[in-house]
Amino acid sequence: MISGLIDTVLVLVSLLVTVQSAHTLYLTLYTWDRPPEEARAPVQFVPPRLSFTVMLPARHEEAVIQTTIERVVKANYPTDLLQVMVICSADDHGTIGKAEEKIARLRLEGLHNVSVVVFHDKPINKPHGLNAALPRAAHDVVTIFDAEDDVHPDIFNVVNTVMETEHVKVVQAGVQLMNFGSSWYSALNVLEYFFWFKSRLHYHARSGAVTLGGNTVFFDRELISRIGGWDEHNLTEDADIGLRLSATGEPIRVVYDDRYVTKEETPPTLGQFIKQRTRWSQGFMQTLRKGTWQTLPTRRQRWLAVYTLAFPNVQALLGIYLLLSTVTIFAFKTPVLVAIITYLPVLMLIAHLLTAVVGLQEFAKAHGLRVSPAAMAGLALAWFPYQAVLAYASARAVSRQLRGINNWEKTQHVGAHREHASAGCTDGPQTLTEAGDNAA
């Protein structure tokens, strides 16, 4: 009786896992059979017209904030069309001091478009800082970069061109982790970003149910003010605001071009990675419970939103499934048909692993990096432990949510991705006016 019940549960769960895994693989490869023009940046830039307010929320980012300010302020865009705000809580004296040091040096160079916005109230988190700074945003478009971001010099030209020519008010550009060889888990973490921004997010945009990324996202200032800014009690305020915008019917343009991605680093330690993933998983749970997805116009959009937001719960259950499957291998004899069905997720696992191997090669080629055979072997060996860590982080998120713990566990940044940055940026397209001048 017990053996039959276990067999039934294993069959049902194995089939569900197989279907879910196949759908995830479809999303992972979604853009590979579509015209690249749907995702890439414009071939030519139009002359700068839109002005940008750049928000740099930072907390205990003394090690990286000055370089980030430098890269943003000295982008290939007219200085008078850029406003940069470093956003800090009043108790973060270290980051404030480093930012003010950099601002003083920039002023000696004649650059006066950077300031520090300090907030004194709680909660001390990213969305509250963004809301505190929003009334000071003076330009057409509001954008967010994280304190450790390496921003491409032409990113404002890319977004100015897309917004002006396509008449969209929200643009999500690409973000890419770079330091794939820093730890046993970093290559798989890099690939998550690679496939999410290069492929999966485009499916969400076409479907009209977008969980936005936390940076390199550009909003029309009046639009973001009209919807009330960010949810200060949500650990994934980016996902929440993306769905709120989708619910209004606002189209969201996703641009992924390897040349123009914002470069970031993987969390420096396993503990930091678990905390980051726990925060993301719990934020999805909060957004699911909040119910914004219910206001999406179509059933298909609502299902996609629920599927995305509920995935951390599924991930926690997958950890239990893996344990149960391992136990049954040694403790129970199952009918041949049951054994075959329970093997289906393994076939999907192999498909995902092969996709990851090819993806790592594509990522490396796009950024002028080299992947050694040892790195490929490490990717395969890390696969199961990585899934176990993700399941643990999701289970930890469930536990925190049930206990009512909602504090923001900050991820440490050390600038490891900057060791992998190219000495010079890839040349981008010329503006239309420059092209005309050169042709003449």
Folded structure, characterized:
The longest helix has 33 residues, at 299-331. The protein is an alpha/beta fold and 440 residues long. Helix 9 (270-290) packs across helix 12. Helix content is 53%, strand content 9%. The protein has a domain at 35-271: Spore Coat Polysaccharide Biosynthesis Protein SpsA, Chain A (Alpha-Beta Complex), CATH 3.90.550.10. The model is unreliable at 420-440 (pLDDT under 50). The chain is globular, with a radius of gyration of 23 Å.
Attribute tags:
440 residues; alpha/beta; Spore Coat Polysaccharide Biosynthesis Protein SpsA, Chain A; two-stranded parallel ribbon; 53% helix; 9% strand; globular
Q: What Rg do the Cα atoms give?
A: 23 Å
Using the coordinates above, name the CATH class of the domain at 35-271.
Alpha Beta
Low-confidence stretches: 420-440
The major sheet is characterized as: 7 strands, mixed
Cα shape: globular
Taken in chain order, the helices and strands follow as HEHEHEHEHEEHEHHEEHHHHH
CATH architecture assignment name of the domain at 35-271: Alpha-Beta Complex
* Lateral strand order in the biggest sheet: 3-2-1-4-7-5-8
User: Level of helix content?
Assistant: 40-55%
Tell me the strand percentage band: 5-15%
* Relevant CATH superfamily of the domain at 35-271: Spore Coat Polysaccharide Biosynthesis Protein SpsA, Chain A
Number of helices: 13
Distance between the termini: 85 Å
CATH topology of the domain at 35-271: Spore Coat Polysaccharide Biosynthesis Protein SpsA, Chain A
